[in-house]
Amino acid sequence: MENCTKDDNVLQNGIVLFQLIIYIPVLFLGIPLNTIAFWVFCCKLKRWTETRVYMINLMIADSFLLFALPFLIYFTKYDHPMDKLCFAVQNIYFTNMPMSILIITLIAIDRYIAIKFPLKAKILRSPLKSASICGFLWITLIIYSYLRPNLKEKYCFQKQTIQPNYSTLFSIIFGYFIPLGIVIFCSVQVITCLKKKMVTSPHETKLIGKAIHIVSVNLCVFVVCFSPFYITLLLRFAVDVAGARSLLSEVRASIQICACLANFNCCLDAFCYYFAAKEFQEFPSLFPICISMRSKMNQNQVSQPPTDQVMT
Q: pTM score, two decimals?
């Protein structure tokens, strides 16, 4: 037992050191980058668009996540007991990561509608609708975080019991894997649609190439950052269901390591979406291309005689 305890302590100290190595640069980079992004999206851009609304909400979520990181490091290192401060910080932390995922999903859906259905985009999309959806998601996630079952854990940010938490399974499926499927589908459809566009000028070719690059990079960042964390959470749920106590320390360490990668996304968001904003100011220029292509397709379908009439 003493050897197991010593091994667990060594492993936990290694995790804390790894968190410091990752989170200190994240804080030093994330705070100024998010500040610059706030300035760009709130002050510099003149026209309100759906993308601008989503970006601002994404920066808010990332900022709250950055606020929770120092508490996460301290609570993990010193085995902080469950109290009101821990409860508040946990709610902030476990609200804003899912919110970031859902906002990125909304951005993917918005792009899909804009490119795939350009004629209906003006009806389906608007900044007010985007703001309403984001507000609904914020309220839903905040209420869910406070109503989440409390398993009466001893230490903050540390699940010691092996009692399965089915609300966690619900969060894993509806908070990540379903959005992951949506993001992959929308991104692939957008890239495929853009590659099929017939362009008539070098400017259009360059514009479409930039759009494809942005969508591809955002998809890769989303998958690489969040997938390991939610896969390990799913593994932890399986361990709890099986009652495999011998695997708890290793699985817990894997979750903490993968969480570092997931939380690093708040810096990558600032990079990706700050530079994407410059390009997506030109993104509406793709709409005339899409609309003209769709109109030509419709005209061809109308002008082409039906097959049965040709046969007769």
A: 0.83
